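User: I want to check something. If I give you two sequences, will you return the structure for each one separately, not as a complex?

Assistant: Yes, each is folded on its own. Here is the first sequence with its structure:
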Amino acid sequence: MKGKVDVLKSLNYLLTNATLDVNIKNASEYTALDILAQIRKDVKNSNDIEKKLKEAGAMRGKDAGQSEWLTKKKETIMLVATLIATIAFQAGMNPPGGFWQDTSDKPSNKHRAGDAIMDYNYPHLYLYFIRASTIGFVASLSTILLLITGLPFKKRIFMWILVAIIWLTITSMAVTFAISIVVITPRVDREPISHTIGVAVIVWCSLMGILFLVHTARLLKEAIDEKWSRHLVTKRIKKINSLKSHQPI
């Protein structure tokens, strides 16, 4: 019992009174939590040690890699999100074709000054254009908000949410671009261009859908594996304690 207390006191002292990187990796790319998981059965107070390490921000090697990647790329992602938000805002404020400069009450060409010409010529495409640009704008702002609020992206669920929002942002801007190209293309060349863009959008959305499903499946698998691993460890500890309780003193 004394050894257990000494170990925890020493660990607590190191974590609170020293500047340590609890996620530093050894030559085999293992962190402290990875090593603890491998020798757990040989360490009596492994659960207490794991709890202390996690409270200090320790992570498994694969999770630490994701966190390090996000830390290094945070400024780049912020810059890209800001750029996309600017583009989406400009697209919404300046749709292809511009605005009517006059007001007309003619039944065949009724419009007001300031109305979008695209809404008059392509009402259905205009609705999709506005929806796509709005989604891209809001998603970009959401990405910026998530990055500046300091959410714990070492948690897989927050990382998954961030990736999903970035995918949504890029996809919505791709749709906005495709609609813009169709609208500004002369009618003579519109059919082949529309076909090409339609195929490109379908391929892009399919690729995004596949990646989304793969990452979702990966997230669920890691969560299930972690839960099952904890269950096995708890079961093993209970078994060891049960055997010890039946041993003669």
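And separately, the second sequence with its own structure:
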Amino acid sequence: KGRISVLANKLIQAGNPPSMVVGVSRGGIVPGLLLRNCLSSHYPTGFKVVDPFTEGALKQFAGTRIVLVDDIYDSGATSHFFTELAMLHEVRMLQFFILDKREMAEEERALWYVFPWETAQDEAGGRQQATATLLRSLGEDPLREGLKDTPKRVDKMWDELAAGYGQRPKEILKTTFAAGEYDEMIILKDIEFFSTCEHHMLPFYGKVHFGYLPDKGLVGISKVARLVECFSRRLQIQERM
């Protein structure tokens, strides 16, 4: 909040504050609201939210002064995108970041920063931004017809591929049946699985053979298959599966 107060005081002292504070979804929403609140005690200042990498996101602010707020300057892709839009729509724009990696030491730039206002829902939006950034780094335009919905598709894909992180193996195996007396191993063969390699994040697949010697109870066959899926729907290596 200290950086926000400093910026607000500078804008107030300059006597020409922005008419609108614009928060970049999702990371810029909370700091953007804090900045607007600091300014609104002296000048009437509005607040709106824009989505990153959305064509025409700044068109509504044509001819006005705005402060664009985001949580962090990382690769610069988002900043460059909005700079180009501001020039296109003749928006007088000041950009503000809670953290700016250009000001950090080299060893700090590689760190991953999590802000207090971030939630699991924010992470989904972060995946979409990361996908758009990756596309731009490859020389692609994430707004072209064939790619404009790709970040959302990739986001949904990872909800499925990484579903195992939200499952608890103990919960899957908590229901058991009386074991009786067994002196041989129970074996289930050829349980097919699909997973994602943690080294290169590429898919791999195979079959699991599962065997155990009952002690205090038996587990249903379907539970074993669910257990395999729980671990396969995470970043894995073949040897560990």
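Because they were folded independently, the notes below concern the second chain alone. The helical segments are 2-14, 29-40, 77-88, 106-109, 120-137, 150-161, 169-172, 221-232. Residues 120-137 form the longest helix (18 residues).
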